[in-house]
Amino acid sequence: MPALNAREHAVSKPMLYRVEAGVGLLEVMIALLVLSVGLLGMAAMLVRAHQAEMESYQRAQALVLLDDIAARITANRPGRNCYPQLSSLGSGSTFSGSGCNAQASADLSAWDSLLKGAAETLDGASVGAMVGARGCITGANESYVVTVAWQGLSETAAPANTCGQNQYGNDAQRRVVSRTIRFAKLN
User: Fold this and answer.
1) How many CA atoms lie within 13 A of 94 on its CB side?
2) How many C-beta atoms surround the C-beta of residue 161 within 10 A?
3) What distances in angstroms separate CA 14 from CA 6, 7, 18, 21, 55, one per listed residue?
4) For the segment 167-186, what is each residue's pLDDT rounded down to a tens digit?
5) C-alpha closest to that of 77 among 58, 103, 105
């Protein structure tokens, strides 16, 4: 094969570039595909992080409400047996304080309002507390269990505590925090 002169050699180079011209576009398309999969993964992670943040906020609100009623029961030792009279307060219930001393009735009425979100309003509507918050108080004399239940955003194992059971559709979305209050026996 005869050697190419400089002019023939220069003409043959563009032929090589034309053969490889589509490879750059293919690389860009593959890079865009990888980038879009990464961005979708990041979007899914942000949604999950938002859910976790909301679950954490609801748990913190439940603990505040739990401590509130625990302090009220402790402060009203003579009327402590009035608190467990109702099976459930909060979402879906109507409070009636009949049969309790005045302080216990006021405490339960206030707690019922807080469970329904009265602490925070938007355009006159209660929006505070948790989704479907319910409060339960069980026990007598020296030992009481105070519980706050609400509807979570995702499914987990259903809690053993029965407060709010079968109230949120799927019981695996029910969240519960509880606290035991003990009184020393007085003779």
Assistant:
1) 0
2) 16
3) 14, 12, 6, 10, 62
4) 888 888 889 999 999 988 76
5) 103
Task: Give the pLDDT confidence of 75-117 residue by residue, as tens digits.
Answer: 988 888 888 876 677 776 666 666 678 888 888 888 888 888 8
Locate tokens 């948790």: which residue? Answer: 130
Q: Of 167, 156, 157, 163, which Cα lies nearest the Cα of 179?
A: 163
CA angle 72, 85, 138 (to 5 degrees): 70
DSSP secondary-structure letter at 4? P
Residue 167 and residue 131 in contact, taking contact as beta carbons nearer than 8 Å: no
- Rounded Cα–Cα distance for residues 86 and 142 (Å): 18
Q: Distance between CA atoms of 42 and 48, rounded to whole angstroms?
A: 10
How far apart are alpha carbons 133 and 115 in whole angstroms? 5
Cβ contacts of 105 within 8 Å, gap of 6 or more: 82, 97
Joined tokens for residue 61: 């609100």
pTM: 0.73
Structural tokens at position 16:
């090589």
